[in-house]
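User: Can you help me understand a structure? I only have the sequence.
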Amino acid sequence: METGVLVLNNNYEPLNICGLHRGMVLLYLGKAEVLRFSDDIVVSAGGDEFIVPSVLRLRNFVKRPTPQLKMSRKSVLARDDYTCQYCGSKSNLTLDHIFPRHRGGETTWENLVCCCLRCNNKKGPCTPQEAGMRLPRAPRKPRYVPYISFPRFISAMRRPEWREYLEGFGKGLEDRF
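Assistant: Let's start by predicting it. Here is the structure, written out as tokens:
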């Protein structure tokens, strides 16, 4: 049972994923309207039953500066779908610098991939070509509206009732789901 509530700005731009309590408060105060209800969740309060909202849209536009997408371990793992980019394993994951740091490789979106410990040890201080390994695709910085953290955005895209509200903001990610 997933009880998070997707909150959209007045222009349908995703702003946040909040808890059920905060979503109900936004509704009660008249600050949001329901775009979609949860199919199977009902809560009881004060002798009344309420269908739980799944997607809310704020009634007033909230102006926010566009934040920069921050690179983090969690974000790189989410970008690569928690899968080793060399062998496809999903266990003992770490990060690998494609061009090693000790040889001048930078910590950038284009130089980091998700890698299992076995492949990382096999590759060692070499480039993938020198180690006889290959990447199925070149890593790149994700393009999306970063109001929601990237790992949360990826997990939100897996919820079918939210996908229609998020797809336009996850450019290049649609084919993963």
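Now, to help you interpret it: The first strand starts at residue 5 and ends at 8. The chain has a mean pLDDT of 89. Let me know which part you'd like to focus on.
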